[in-house]
Amino acid sequence: MKYLEWRNRMAFIICIAALIIMMFVFTKMLLSFSNNSSAAVESVDATVVEKKQGIYTHMQSEAHVPWFRVVFEMTDGSLMEFQMQQGDFRELEKGDRGMLTYQGNRYICYQKYKFKSEAQEGRKMLSESIAKLVQYGITTGLTPECERNYTTNLLLDVFHEDDYEKPDNIEEPVNLEETLDELLDEAVKRGLIEDSIVYRDLFDTRLMNCLMPRPGQVTKRILGTNMQKARKKATDYFYKLSQDSNYIRRYRVEKDQKWKVDSPYGEIDITINLSKPEKDPKAIAAARNVKSGSYPKCLLCPENEGYAGRVNHPARQNHRIIPITINDTPWGFQYSPYVYYNEHCIVFNCQHTPMKIERNAFIKLFDFVKLFPHYFLGSNADLPIVGGSILSHDHFQGGHYTFAMAKAPIEQHVVLPGFEDVEAGIVKWPLSVLRIRHKDFNRLVDLATHVLEVWRGYTDEKAFIYAETNGEPHNTITPIARKVGDTYELDLTLRNNITTEEHPLGVYHPHAEYHHIKKENIGLIEVMGLAVLPARLKGEMELLEEYILEGKDISSNEQIEKHAEWVKKFLPKYPEITKENIHGILQKEIGIVFTHVLEDAGVYKCTTEGREAFMRFLETL
């Protein structure tokens, strides 16, 4: 009996509770309806940012009722969430943009704009840019037609994209620079890279690698060519590949300013190097924070081939190296990414070993020239100041170009004891050059070795030539080998790196009065007659043109005041300076300065006294 009373009482309590809940829900719905009805109907620009759906299970009937909700983002960044019918829910996609109409918290409708959502548009543009890049690879021969889908998928993976919309058509020829810029901008939008020249270069190199043949395929094609009959054809293919792959960035190299200037020694080449991009401050700061690595050991090591790079080391995924044998040891053949002249190549030891000018160096030069007789090959000197920028790795530089030095004639022939069969003589050149010629390169190797050994220990105080001071050696040679017709040539440029208080950077180095134009070392390329000048000169010359034409005080401008004395000296030579001729005047005067720089680098000057001193050395041979 008591149990029945208790059960009836509990049933009554449950009914009352249910009634209260129902009344609460009904009141809430009524208030919500009332609020919604009294609220103004609003239409706002909104983007679909999230879709939610689930199943609601009714407690009493246990019925399963689906629910659908969508989150919208307003233009001010605020979020609103609405429940809606399944049909409306299905019509919406994340990323849609359109006009949201609602009343209070009640969803009314959503009118999509006619254009596609930004995300959809971005995917479409990415697909088009990828298709263009793949087409570029196929057109240039980097990518075979049968790998179109494979290459497309590689690029999609780089962008973490799993959707692709094939464009209807691709306009050719594809502009590589524009296409890469489109892809890089998209990578920035997606947060894959920072918008900086350093990070963009690292990323576009990764993109280009997707188009590239593997190193073994390139090597097989070049070395599989009949090298005896088609050596030039092999280098033509490799040079084109190095450009098509964007390893040599054509569109940057084309920005370099190049001109020629007549001099007493022939036509001198001048270039203002603009192809090396300036690093932005953020990248410089990032590079400082990067722990310096030992892999690859330097920019010339073969381990650079395929390396992804980092902020303080360039990416080389699109880089290819051809293995060759030089002096019975493995070496690599590649092109310089900055190509200061036509087909500017670098030949390097596969072992990270320091440069050394010795007998073997001459053998190596001719081993290469025998392989590629249409190329010259030379070496930087192996001592600081007169050497190149990388003395830690044994390497040479060459190419398919004839410099003024190679065109310069022998001014004074000499006969050297024991080598009477070898044509030899002093070249009419601002640096001190002994040219030796013979059809048998072995005779040149023997003579060059003899000249080097004597020069290493040679001192002539009257000519201010010292073999060493305080145990530090000063004498070395910059050699350049080539083949002219059926005759081998070797130019031996005598170098000395002694310093004094008056010339702390080197007695045979650009003197201080010319540092406003050229302060850097005179390496192999400059020795041959090509001035590689810093990018700063472009802006400085433009300013100088303005100041000269308008009669402004050059010394009043901090950027160009270093040029004031120079301009003051040459201006009287030109009675009429106009807007039309000022550019040519400055180019000519820069060439004159560089000629004087080369004269400074000559250990024996092109004077009577200089020639007599040069002959004193040759007589010791």
State the gist of this model.
The chain has 621 residues and is an alpha+beta fold.
Can you put this structure into words, describing what you see?
There is one protein chain. The strands form 4 sheets. A 10-stranded antiparallel β-sheet has the order 8-9-10-12-11-18-19-15-14-13. A 5-stranded antiparallel β-sheet has the order 3-2-1-4-5. The protein has a 3-stranded mixed β-sheet with strand order 6-7-20. The protein has 18 helices and 20 strands. With 621 residues, it is an alpha+beta fold. A hairpin with a 2-residue loop joins strand 18 and strand 19.
Question: What is the strand and helix layout of this fold?
Answer:
Layout lengths: L1 H37 L2 E17 L6 E11 L4 E5 L2 H6 L5 E7 L2 E7 L5 H23 L7 H11 L17 H14 L7 H13 L5 H9 L7 H14 L5 H4 L3 E7 L2 E7 L8 H9 L32 E5 L2 E7 L9 E5 L9 H13 L4 E3 L16 E5 L4 H4 L2 E5 L8 E5 L5 E6 L2 H16 L11 E2 L2 E2 L1 E10 L2 E10 L27 H4 L2 E4 L2 H15 L13 H7 L11 H20 L6 H12 L2
Parallel strand pairs: 7-20
Antiparallel strand pairs: 1-2, 1-4, 2-3, 4-5, 6-7, 8-9, 9-10, 10-12, 11-12, 11-18, 13-14, 14-15, 15-19, 16-17, 18-19
